[in-house]
């Protein structure tokens, strides 16, 4: 079916549709491709208008084509960044599309262009997977399928034999009539596609693909020096979203939600670090894991929730105290934090069960004791001195901590803009000079003091609290909720949480960062006020809620969710159920058609008036069959009647008359009047 | 290779003959409509596969969703393609007779029940048939142009080769509507018998024929068949009451039988076209000569009678008479 297309309206439609797929790529592909596209499309339309088919022109055009192709390829090679990236791949696709415009002649070329448009539109989703982007891709697909319909229905048949072009324009090619047809097809296809999406199992990646995405490392880092977190606290972007099990929603109290990310155990005088290659980052031993999972299974006090983490460029995952995750690519670490095997580049969803009452009351080994009471050789001498004095007054761990908290509560102020330390000893400056600080100041100095008193301690970083979404079905945790606190090892209890910030500014913990910061920011500049204003916040929340559900249910739809959902929907995952589910929309679609057919047949059989001649004919057959003369298949009436006459000589006269009447009405096209048909019926009746 | 193809074609024809026999009027139903993916449909599925691989490898649910959407569109398309074709009725208008070797023009009348149906339907002779001469070359396709009417007419030409009653090949009605992914077609056999007259051929008398004519004279039949341009056509038996001036006295003197000279006149006088005039000529050839002669006589409006071994058509003139005569010659059974 290689037919020449001469209809210019098709070119307009197709050019516009393909352009539609290119628009959202402006930041990812080479910009001169747009210029090329417009130029070649314009040229194509001009040529089509002129009807440029002379051989001479074609030859010169061929030379030009070669030049253009070479120029484009050279330009492409020069302007792309080296190496294979998704952006370059899409650029190459767009370049191909542009060059195809140069030889857009037969319907096959049009079809190829449409298919290229489909692939480009799909690739756009690799770069942006929001709800809007998908809606836009659907729009592009609609436009492209409309073009498909238009090309198909504008059959321009060139008959080789007749050497003449038969141009035919159906109403679809010329008007917008196709829109409705394609819309109907789309609306019918969407439920089927939805079912396929829900049911068809997801296969993991078949081969590794480079997802050339440079994700900036954001959020909490594996280092903590003073001033890090207060920078984060100005950032209102979402860090993660948490959905609790419906029944457990009430249990989750904001002030108790400490999302642990990682623990830092090494201090060099300025910065807290996670010392690699030690027990913290090692995977949790299998015995502990089974112990924990047994507890989780049998305890009532378990929080089940799933977290969707924004891409952070870092591997660690956040969870409530004592987490257990069944996701296969989540590592359970021995300090009871979770981590993914590879850095999180895109949104990542994982589910966790947390058992808050669990206590790992192991004894610290000597090395561990040394690690968790480690302090740098010199520096912060005043703090060490202060710690020694405090320990002398309160020689037990609990008393020491109480006294320390009381000290913080009495003289310290929580602020977002603490003064930067002038001397090298940041902890000394904070404790005895400024007394203004933020969570990392408190956590850092508390840990320092504890360690100076030989009490094992470490810093835990993560987020604290969050904001409930409008309809309260999920918790939004923003970067502003970033937090640092202390974990102390107590004899017989293991690691316990100690939050010095709560001692200084309990509102920070109880209200959550957002509202607390709003209060703090009351008299600051206009932009941050606007940022925190009610309307904007409400809109942000609403939009985020839609976006979150999108990510949770559509983008995050994986095999685990599939299993749960299919089981929920169908009551099981047996093959027959799934097959039935797939067939359901098909049947619903075909049922009206089937019914229509049945009704039509019924009408034809029972309701439509039947020619009296055929009725009488059927009666005659019946009567004669009773007399033992059966009509053979294909036997004409006359032959049949003659046979009947031989068998029933006493009816000869009647049969002859009947035959005459029939022949007259059947073959001479003169309809029987009432008298004749009555006579006929009477005669048939008399056959006994 | 060709053998297999041929055999398949034969099997397909046999299958069609059983499933979809010759009828006066055909209505397209699921009984006689076939649907199969077109080349475009196969490419479409290839694109689906590409999207699926893309979505799977990049673990992108949205691209997978698009792939599923395309699959669904292809599935839904089956229904739409079928509905577009369903219910189309086709019959043939009476076909004017032609001389063998000429093209007969079969006018097909299409009727639809719904003005939204039957978009982009093309009509052609069934390709790849044994008896169809266009086995190898591309068949000529016409596209139905409804112009918002319920009826559309299409004329297809078919070459005739032999005299007699010629039933044209099956008609292929096909459509790729709406998206071109599927080909929906029906090969219907519609009663459109064409009467094919033998091709007219002038009778040229050769020398060896003169003996034959001599013997014909003896058997008191027409002696010579002369070309029409001559006024004098030949000799005929003299019947009582005919003009004495036309009596061929010379012949009378020779044989003792009264002949009359036969001239072209428009009167009640008529001529015989007799099978027996062409002794020794092969049957088909004879029929061709008779057709030629009949046409000439008709052109000069001379009444004539046709005498065949099993049929006699009484003398007459005019278009209807000519048609009757030619039809008898076309259907002559050897």
SSE blueprint and pairings:
The complex is a heterodimer of chains A (688) and B (334).
Chain A: H1 8-22, H2 32-50, H3 55-79, H4 86-100, H5 107-127, H6 131-153, E1 157-159, E2 164-166, H7 171-174, H8 177-199, E3 223-225, H9 228-232, E4 238-244, E5 258-264, E6 266-267, E7 271-273, H10 286-298, E8 303-309, E9 316-317, E10 323-325, E11 330-332, E12 338-340, E13 348-354, H11 366-372, H12 381-393, H13 397-411, E14 413-414, H14 426-434, E15 436-437, H15 439-452, E16 457-464, E17 467-468, E18 475-478, E19 482-490, E20 494-498, H16 500-504, H17 506-511, H18 513-520, H19 526-532, H20 534-555, H21 559-570, H22 575-607, H23 612-626, H24 637-647, H25 652-667, H26 674-686
Parallel strand pairs in A: 14-15
Antiparallel strand pairs in A: 1-2, 3-7, 4-8, 4-18, 5-16, 6-7, 8-13, 9-12, 10-13, 11-12, 16-19, 17-18, 19-20
Helix pairs in contact in A: 1-2, 1-5, 1-6, 2-4, 3-4, 4-5, 5-6, 6-8, 8-22, 12-15, 23-26, 24-25, 25-26
Chain B: H1 2-19, E1 25-27, E2 34-37, H2 39-57, H3 61-85, E3 89-92, E4 98-99, E5 103-111, E6 121-125, E7 142-143, E8 151-159, E9 164-166, E10 171-175, E11 182-188, E12 194-197, H4 209-218, E13 232-237, H5 249-255, E14 259-263, E15 271-274, H6 283-299, E16 304-308, E17 311-316, H7 319-330
Parallel strand pairs in B: 4-12, 15-16
Antiparallel strand pairs in B: 1-3, 2-11, 3-5, 5-8, 6-7, 6-10, 9-12, 10-11, 13-14, 16-17
Helix pairs in contact in B: 2-3, 6-7
Describe the structure.
The complex is a heterodimer of chains A (688) and B (334). By secondary structure, chain A is of the alpha+beta class. Helices cover 54% and strands 12% of the residues of chain A. Chain A contains 26 helices and 20 strands. In chain A, α2 runs parallel beside α4, α3 packs antiparallel against α4 and α4 packs antiparallel against α5. Chain A is elongated and about 140 Å long. Chain A starts with 7 loop residues before the first helix and ends with a helix. In chain A, 34% of the residues are buried. About 3% of the residues of chain A have low confidence. Chain B is 32% helix and 25% strand. Chain B is elongated, with a radius of gyration of 31 Å. Chain B is of the alpha+beta class and 334 residues long. In chain B, a hairpin with a 2-residue loop joins β16 and β17. Chain B contains seven helices and 17 strands. In chain B, α2 runs antiparallel to α3 and α6 packs antiparallel against α7. Classes of the chains: A alpha+beta (688), B alpha+beta (334). At the A-B interface, α5, α6, α8 and α22 of A face α2, α3 and β7 of B.
